[in-house]
Amino acid sequence: MSVLLDTGIVYAYYDRSDRWHARAKRLVEGEQHGLILPAPVIPEVDHLLGHRLGMKSRLLFYTGIVGGYYFVADLPRDAYSRIADLNRQFDDLNLGFVDAAIVALAESLDVARVATTDRRHFTPIAAALSLELVP
Fold first, then answer.
1. Is the CB of residue 131 less than 8 Å from the CB of residue 106?
2. Domain boundary assignment for the chain
3. What is the helix (H) or strand (E) element at residue 35, kind and residue range?
4. What pTM was computed for the model?
5. What whole-number distance in Å separates Cα of residue 133 and Cα of residue 17?
6. Cβ atoms of residues 90 and 123 within 8 Å
7. Could you give the 3-state DSSP secondary structure of residue 46?
8. pLDDT digits 0-9 by tens, 83-109
């Protein structure tokens, strides 16, 4: 079963000092069925890697994308209205575009597993929409 990757888990995979690194590494390197990288996550990861770890980490990330380590999932046209709906539905969470896009992609791709470090936003959504949060 494939897994959708949120920004925090991808960043933690590259940052050995991150408290989520070991869990992210086990998940990413142990996934047998596909690592789905939502396109909206890419600029967030790029910014964090560049700002905190430097160009070398960015280049490793780019190499993973180009080499097919991740399956990059673009948003289908109808996802944008779903993103707005999710932000209305979970307005108390101040969800934002990227987290809502991950949920919209999970629904459109029929993928129930979301790898995230962001339990504050994703725990209530997972409960309401039957998503499984990992690790």
1. yes
2. 3-133
3. strand 35-38
4. 0.96
5. 22
6. no
7. helix
8. 999 999 999 999 999 999 999 999 999
